[in-house]
Every structure is written in C-alpha cells, then in structure tokens.
Amino acid sequence: MTHDLREQMSLMLDGRLTAQERADLMAHLATCEECRPQWAAFHQVDRVLAEAARVAPAPGFATRFPGRLARQQARRAAPRRVFAGIGVFATGAAAIMLLAVPMLLAVWDGVHDLVQGAPSLVNNLIVGAPSQLIYSTTLAARWLVTLRALGEAGQSVVSALSPSAGLILASYMLVLAVVVLAWITIVRGVSGRWNSTTLVLVWL
Amino acid sequence: MNDNEPADITAALRGNTAAFTRLVEAYQRPVYNLAYRMLGDADEAEEAAQETFLRAYTQLGTYQPGRKFSSWLFSIASHYCIDLLRRRRLTWLSIEDEQAPAEMLTSEELGPEDTMLEKEQEKTVRKMLATLPPDYRLPVVLRYWHNLSYEEIAQATHSTVSAVKSKLFRARTMLANQVGQLQTSG
C-alpha cells in the first residue's frame, strides 16, 4: 500500500509535530523502504539551506540611505514647484494685463477718433479701388469698421464710468496691489528667500 | 530589537531622519539578506533594500507598535521583491544568467579550501532558490534565513498559516527532486 508522509516530514523539520507524532514518524521511517529515501532528500535540502550563509550589503549601506531619501523627497517636491511656477506666471500675467488696461483704453480711444474723423477715407477705399483690389480693400475696410466699433464701445464704457472715476480708480489700484502682492508671495515661496533673482523679478 | 528602537521610531515619525538611519543600520543585514535571496543579485538586492527602507520611512505611520519591526520591514521587502519579479514576468531566475554575488559573512579563520567549499555551497543554494517560483521562494527565505515561525511568515506575507505550511512543503518537494542533481553538477 503506497502512502505519502512527506507533508509530515516537512512539518517535523519545522518543529510543528507533537512529541508523539514525531516519535511515530521516526519509528515508521526506520522501517519503511519507500519513505526513507524521501526523508533523506528532505533532510538534505534542510541541511543545505540551514547551513547557507547570511549575506551582507556592500559597506556604507546605511550612509547611502539619507542621500537617497533626500533625492526622493526632491522628486516629490517637483510637481509642487510646477504648480507654483504656474501661479507665478498667472498672477504676473494678470498684473501686466491690469497695468495695460488704461493704455489699451487710450489706444481704443485714439483709434476711434481716427476712424471717426476719416469716414471719407473708408468710403473711398471701397468705391475708388480697382476691381482686382476690391476684396483686399473690403477686408481692410471691415477691420477698420470693427476697430471703430470697439473704439465706440470703449468710449461708452469710459463715459459710463466717469461719474465715479475716483472710486473705480481706487478699486483698480487695490486689485492691482493684491495681484502684485500675491505674485511676490509666490515668487518668494518658490525661491525660498530674498535673493538677487527674486528682487529682479519683483522690480520687473 | 534594541532598547532605543521605540524612541527612534517615534523620532522618525516626527521627521527625524537621523533616528530612522539608526533603524536602517540595525536592520540593513536582514533586509538585504531577504532581498538577495529573493532576487539573486547583489546590485538588485541593494536597490531593493534601499527602496524597502524608503517605503518604510514614508509609511512609518502605518506601523503598529505591537508588531515586531523586523516583521513589518520583511513584509515591505517581500512585497517589493515579489512585485519586481512579477513585473519581469519571470517565475524564476535563469540559472545561466550572470548575477553579482553578494558578500558572505564568512569566518575570517577559514582557510582557502574552506572558503572555496563555502563558495560552492553558496552557488548550490543560489541555484536551488532560483528553481523556486517567487511565491514558494519567499517562505523558504523567511524560514531558513530569518527563523520566522509559520505565524510570522503568514503575517509578513499577508497569507495564512495553512498556505505557508503548504508552500513550504511544496518548495521542499521541488528542491528534494533537484538537490542531488544540483550538487553533482556543481
């Protein structure tokens, strides 16, 4: 009758059998021609593995760890710097646009005056041009008409705001100051301290 | 575990990297040994062991004080090594591949013949482990090189005692079928 006691042998190697179970197994192994070679092979595996050396890392393993940890932390901080950079750009762009608003309004106002004062120029461009230039002149005329409309809209906005121009101007300056302060804060947060680069950026 | 370990762990939780480095010094050998026996290559074992400690540092808040710190480290190292081996889609290392052997902790009193014998035995052990699938290799490594009980192996590998018992038995069966051939082939 065949039987397989290898699982019991494995448990015995790990000390998982009771004293009685161990004694019974050893008694069986002493007489069983089928199980003895299996036990010999298991015992040989156990001996080889049990006698195997423990290995050591290369010298300096622990001293290499802090540098590696610092590199990992730096890598994790990189995305935050990207977002901070975007914040710097966005607030800087907002500040520049706010500063440009008065200038843009002045330009629109000037363009409106120019277009308003030269209607004959526009009409002559459309009517007097040779036939082969009609398309290009018509396109140019349409741009001029569009600019005139924008100028008129800007003129209307300025006119509507003029009664409370002082309040509007103060609010505008306040918003501009907040945006610039936010930009300075983000720049300083990214650079970590006041240095020549930060000062140049602030001055700009 | 040394007497300062709880204090070092507490300090490391507060961001004290020097305290955690002391833990690295204390456990570098067992963690490295596990990684080396799993991966079979000294350079990869260095990488795996360093990564284990990095993960332990970032996950230190999940460590339960009532648990052996070494078992917790073994759990992290085990999962890293198993994941690495699975990503390579290798179920076992190729015996023919050149791998960088690790430095063995041999006695300085050994003579040249004994050293050669140890190197041959080490070669046999590496070949034996290389024949085992990672899921079988891991409990063997934890049992023979770290003297963990079935319960500790089950905890480190997020498994059950029954599964550990079965895997050790199957690993021994596989190795028993090959050990004679491996030793004669050298």
What would your notes on this structure say?
The complex is a heterodimer of chains A (204) and B (186). Chain A has 204 residues and is an all-alpha fold. Helix content of chain A is 81%, strand content 1%. Chain A is built from 8 helices and 1 strand, in the order H-H-H-E-H-H-H-H-H. In chain A, helix 1 runs parallel beside helix 3, helix 4 crosses helix 6 and helix 4 (61-116) packs antiparallel against helix 7 (165-191). Chain A is rod-shaped, with a radius of gyration of 43 Å. In chain B, helix 2 crosses helix 4 (69-87), helix 6 (134-144) packs across helix 8 (161-185) and helix 7 crosses helix 8 (161-185). Chain B has helices at residues 5-13, 17-39, 42-58, 69-87, 112-130, 134-144, 150-156, 161-185; one strand at 103-104. Chain B has 186 residues and is mostly helical. Chain B contains 8 helices and 1 strand. In chain B, 70% of the residues lie in helices and 1% in strands. Chain B starts with a helix and ends with a helix. The A-B interface holds A 6-7, 10-11, 13-14, 16, 38, 41-42, 44-46, 48-58, 61-62, 64-66, 68-69, 72 and B 17, 21, 24-25, 28-29, 32-33, 36-37, 42, 45-46, 49-50, 53-54, 57, 102-106, 118, 121-122, 124-125, 128, 140, 143-145, 150, 165, 168-169, 172-173, 175-177, 179-180, 183. Strand 1 of chain A pairs antiparallel with strand 1 (103-104) of chain B, so a sheet runs across the interface.
